[in-house]
C-alpha cells in the first residue's frame, strides 16, 4: 500500500487531542449527605469500573474515526500491476482519432461517438487540479495548449468526422510537445483510435517518464471500394483529341466484388464508363477517354457506386489547355522565313521574334517555347538566363548555325549539361527514324508504316554521346547518329538539333507534316507534369503562372465550403501557393484575383489512407508497441472508468477510510446513547 499524499499522515498527531482531553477531564461531583453510606460502597466501586470501560471505548472510537479521516485525506492506494502510479499534478493529453474510418460503426454506435464517451471518462478520472490537452486530426491551434477540466469536456462535444488523416506517431509528437509546455511533473498520454494499419506507426516512447495508454475501438468490418488515383497517359492533354485518362479503382475487402459502376462527369454531362469486377485486395486499371473541345481550365469528376463507405467514391481532377502557345525566336536579327511562316500560320501560336541584342530578359519566363537560331555565339548573360529558364520548366530548341563558335556553344551546352557539338560534317544525311514513343511525336502520325517524307541534311554537327547527360534521340540518321536530341533538365526540356535551320543545309522547316506538330508538341511539353489533383492533408505547394506583374495582388481559393487566402510566394513568373491545411472539403477550388475572375482551378480529394479498413487487433497492437505501453480495453463500458482510475491512481482505498470514520463515529454515538453507567 502507498499514499498519494503521504504528508497528510502528519495529521495523526491530532490523535493526542482526544487522549489528552480524556486524561485531564475531571467531572465535578455534587455532595449528597446520607445518614449511613455503608451500603453504598459496593455499588460505587461497580459503577466506577463500568464508566471507566465505557470512556476507554469512546476514546478508542474517536481516535479510530480521526485516524480514518487522516488516512482518507492521504489517499492510500494499491499500485496497479506493472505500473507506477503518478503522484502530484498531471498533464494529461487525449488524442481522439476523428478520421473518416471512425465514422464506421461497431455493434452499438459510430466509433467516433464511442471515442468521445471514452475521452470524457478519461478526463473525469483525473482531478480538477490537473491540466488537459484534447487533440484531433485537425491539429488546430487551440489544441496545442493545456486547458482546464471543464473546458476540455466542452471541446469533446464539438468533435466531428474530419477529412484530415494523421499517423499516430505525428499525433504523439504533438501530444509530447504540448505536455512539455506545462509545469506538472507527471505526463500521461492517451490515444483513442481504431488503429488502422495504414496510420499506426507507433513505438514505445524513448522518454520513460511519459506514460502512454492506447484505447483501441473495434468496428464491424465493412467492404470498401475506392477510386485510388487517375492520370492522363500523355504529359499534357491536347485540344480536340480523345485524351486517354487512366483510372485505378481498388478493392479493399477480402472478397471479389462485381458490378462496380464507373462514370465520368465532364462539361455538365455524366457519362457511364463501364462496370468493373475487382479481385479481393487488388485493383483494376480502367481507361476513360475525354474529348477536350475548348481551351482553358477543364474540370472532370469520376465516380463509382459503393456503400457504406463513400468518402472515397468520387475523384475530382482538373487540367489546363493553353488558349495560346507563346513562342519566342531569338536570332541574330534575321528571321528565318519558313520558321516565321510556321509560327504565324497557326492561330494557336503567339509568336514573337527578337535579336539577341534587343532581347527583353524579363519576358523569357512567359514563353512556352524559345527557339534559338542563327546565333553564331551565345553570350554568357544569355546562356545563364536560358539555363535558368529551362531549369524552371521552360522548353528550349537550339539550331546552331553553320558558322557557330564551337567553344561558345560548348560552354553554353555544358551549363545544362548537354552533349557537345563536334566539328561540322558536310556529308549529306537522311533521317530514317522518328521516336514515336516520345511525347513530341507520339500520336502525331495516323499510320506509322505509311510513306512519310523524312528530313534530309547537307551537313551537321556530330553530337557527342556522354552517357551521364541522358540524351534521348527524337530523330536519327541512317548511320545511327542523332539528328535531334532531347534532354530533361530539372523541370524543363532542352531540344538540340545537329543541323542548322538554314534551308540550304536542312529541309526540316519545309517538311510541314513533321516540323509544325514538332514545334507545337515541344511548346506544350513539360519536364514536370501539372498534378491533376491534390490530396487534402498533405499540405502541398501549388505552382501556377503569375498573372500580373504587381506583387500586391492577393490570390484567393474558392471552393464548395467557402474561400480562403493561401500563403503566397512569387519567384520570377511563377507563384507558389501554400495551403497550410486550409482546404476543408473535396471538390474544385477556383483561383481568384481581385475582380473575382477565375484564373486557374485545382482539384482536391480526400486522402485514401483511410480507405483500407484493416485494423490491428489488441494482441497485435501490444506486440507492436511493447509492454511499456499500456493497452486499455475500451469495449466494456461499465468497467472502463474504473479501469482508467485504477491505471492512473492504482486501486484507491480512501473510501474505506471515510467508511471507517463514519463507522467509529456511529459506535461512539451508540456507546454514549445506550451505555448507561
Describe the overall structure.
- With 677 residues, this protein is α/β, with parallel strands linked by helices.
- Helices cover 24% and strands 28% of the residues.
- It has 12 helices and 32 strands.
- A 9-stranded mixed β-sheet has the order 15-14-16-17-22-21-20-18-19. The chain has a 5-stranded parallel β-sheet with strand order 4-3-5-6-31, with helices on both faces.
- The protein starts with a strand and ends with a helix.
- The model has no long low-confidence stretch (mean pLDDT 85).
Brief descriptors of the model:
Rossmann fold; single chain; 12 helices; about 675 residues; alpha/beta; 32 strands; nine-stranded mixed beta sheet; 5 domains; elongated; Immunoglobulin-like; five-stranded parallel beta sheet
User: Rg from C-alpha positions?
Assistant: 41 Å
**Largest sheet strand order:** 15-14-16-17-22-21-20-18-19
CATH architecture of the largest domain: 3-Layer(aba) Sandwich
Question: Could you say how many structural domains there are in total?
Answer: 5
Strand content: 25-35%
The rough form would be described as elongated
Low-confidence stretches: none
- The CATH class assignment of the largest domain is Alpha Beta
Helix amount, in percent?
Answer: 10-25%
Fourth-tier CATH superfamily name of the largest domain: Class I glutamine amidotransferase (GATase) domain
Number of helix segments?
Answer: 12
- Strand count, sense and closure of the main sheet? 9 strands, mixed
SS elements, strand count: 32
What distance lies between the first and last C-alpha atoms, to the nearest angstrom? 41 Å
| Class based on secondary structure composition and strand pairing | alpha/beta
CATH topology of the largest domain: Rossmann fold
**For the residues shown, what is the average pLDDT?**
85
Amino acid at each position: 500500500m502507498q499514499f498519494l499524499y503521504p504528508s497528510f499522515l502528519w495529521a495523526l498527531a491530532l490523535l493526542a487531542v482526544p487522549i489528552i482531553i480524556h486524561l485531564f477531564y475531571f467531572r465535578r461531583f455534587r455532595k449528597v449527605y446520607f445518614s449511613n453510606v455503608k451500603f453504598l460502597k459496593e455499588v460505587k466501586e461497580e459503577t466506577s469500573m463500568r464508566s471507566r470501560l465505557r470512556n476507554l471505548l469512546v476514546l478508542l472510537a474517536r481516535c479510530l474515526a480521526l485516524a480514518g479521516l487522516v488516512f482518507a485525506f492521504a489517499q492510500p492506494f494499491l499500485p496497479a500491476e506493472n505500473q507506477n502510479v503518478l503522484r502530484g499534478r498531471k498533464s494529461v493529453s487525449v488524442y481522439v482519432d476523428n478520421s473518416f474510418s471512425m465514422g464506421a460503426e461497431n455493434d452499438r454506435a459510430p466509433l467516433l461517438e464511442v471515442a468521445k464517451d471514452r475521452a470524457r471518462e478519461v478526463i473525469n478520472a483525473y482531478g480538477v487540479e490537473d491540466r488537459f490537452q484534447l487533440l484531433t486530426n485537425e491539429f488546430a491551434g487551440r489544441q496545442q495548449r493545456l486547458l482546464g477540466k471543464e473546458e476540455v469536456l466542452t471541446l469533446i462535444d464539438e468533435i466531428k468526422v474530419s477529412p484530415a488523416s494523421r499517423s499516430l506517431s505525428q499525433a504523439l509528437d504533438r501530444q509530447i510537445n504540448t505536455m512539455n509546455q506545462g509545469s506538472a511533473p507527471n505526463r500521461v498520454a492517451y490515444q483513442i483510435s481504431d488503429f488502422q494499419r495504414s496510420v499506426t506507426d507507433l513505438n514505445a516512447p524513448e522518454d520513460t517518464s511519459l506514460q502512454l495508454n492506447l484505447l483501441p475501438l473495434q468496428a464491424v468490418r465493412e467492404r470498401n471500394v475506392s477510386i485510388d488515383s487517375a492520370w492522363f497517359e500523355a504529359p499534357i492533354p491536347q485540344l480536340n483529341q480523345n485524351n486517354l485518362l487512366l483510372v485505378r479503382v481498388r478493392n479493399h475487402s477480402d472478397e471479389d466484388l462485381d458490378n462496380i459502376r464507373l462514370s465520368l462527369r465532364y462539361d455538365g454531362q455524366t457519362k457511364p464508363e463501364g462496370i468493373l469486377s475487382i479481385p479481393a485486395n487488388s485493383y483494376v486499371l480502367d481507361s476513360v477517354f475525354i474529348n477536350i473541345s475548348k481551351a482553358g481550365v477543364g474540370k472532370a469528376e469520376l465516380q463509382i457506386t459503393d456503400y457504406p463507405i463513400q468518402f472515397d467514391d468520387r475523384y475530382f481532377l482538373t487540367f489546363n489547355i493553353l488558349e495560346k502557345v507563346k513562342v519566342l525566336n531569338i536570332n541574330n536579327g534575321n528571321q528565318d522565313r519558313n520558321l516565321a511562316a510556321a509560327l504565324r500560320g497557326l492561330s494557336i501560336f503567339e509568336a514573337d521574334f527578337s535579336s539577341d541584342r534587343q532581347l527583353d530578359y524579363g519576358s523569357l519566363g512567359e514563353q512556352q517555347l524559345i527557339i534559338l537560331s542563327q546565333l553564331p555565339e551565345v553570350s554568357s548573360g544569355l546562356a545563364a538566363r536560358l539555363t535558368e529558364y529551362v531549369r524552371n520548366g521552360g522548353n528550349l530548341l537550339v539550331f546552331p548555325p553553320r558558322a557557330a563558335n564551337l567553344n561558345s556553344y560548348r560552354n553554353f551546352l555544358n551549363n545544362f549539361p548537354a552533349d557537345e557539338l563536334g566539328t561540322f560534317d558536310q556529308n549529306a544525311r537522311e533521317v530514317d527514324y522518328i521516336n514515336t514513343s516520345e511525347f513530341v511525336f507520339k500520336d502525331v502520325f495516323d499510320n506509322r508504316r505509311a510513306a512519310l517524307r523524312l528530313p534530309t541534311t547537307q551537313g551537321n554537327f556530330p553530337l557527342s554521346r556522354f552517357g551521364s547527360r541522358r540524351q534521348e534521340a527524337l530523330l536519327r540518321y541512317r548511320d545511327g547518329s542523332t539528328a535531334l536530341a532531347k534532354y530533361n533538365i530539372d523541370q524543363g526540356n532542352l531540344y538540340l538539333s545537329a543541323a542548322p535551320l538554314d534551308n540550304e543545309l536542312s529541309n526540316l522547316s519545309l517538311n510541314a507534316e513533321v516540323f509544325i506538330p514538332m514545334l507545337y508538341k515541344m511548346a506544350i511539353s513539360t519536364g514536370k507534369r501539372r498534378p491533376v489533383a491534390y490530396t487534402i492533408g498533405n499540405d502541398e505547394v501549388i505552382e501556377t503562372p503569375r498573372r500580373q506583374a504587381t506583387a500586391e495582388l492577393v490570390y484567393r481559393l474558392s471552393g464548395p465550403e467557402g474561400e480562403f487566402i493561401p500563403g503566397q510566394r512569387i519567384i520570377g513568373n511563377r507563384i507558389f501557393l501554400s495551403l497550410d491545411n486550409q482546404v476543408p472539403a473535396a471538390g474544385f477550388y477556383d483561383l481568384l484575383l481581385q475582380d473575382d475572375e477565375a484564373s486557374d482551378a485545382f482539384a482536391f480529394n480526400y486522402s485514401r489512407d483511410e480507405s483500407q479498413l484493416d485494423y490491428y487487433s489488441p494482441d497485435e497492437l501490444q506486440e507492436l508497441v511493447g509492454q511499456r505501453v499500456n493497452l486499455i480495453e475500451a469495449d466494456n463500458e461499465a468497467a472502463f472508468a474504473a479501469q482508467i482510475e485504477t491505471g492512473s491512481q492504482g486501486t484507491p482505498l480512501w473510501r474505506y477510510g471515510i467508511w471507517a470514520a463514519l463507522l467509529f463515529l456511529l459506535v461512539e454515538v451508540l456507546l454514549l446513547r445506550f451505555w448507561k453507567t
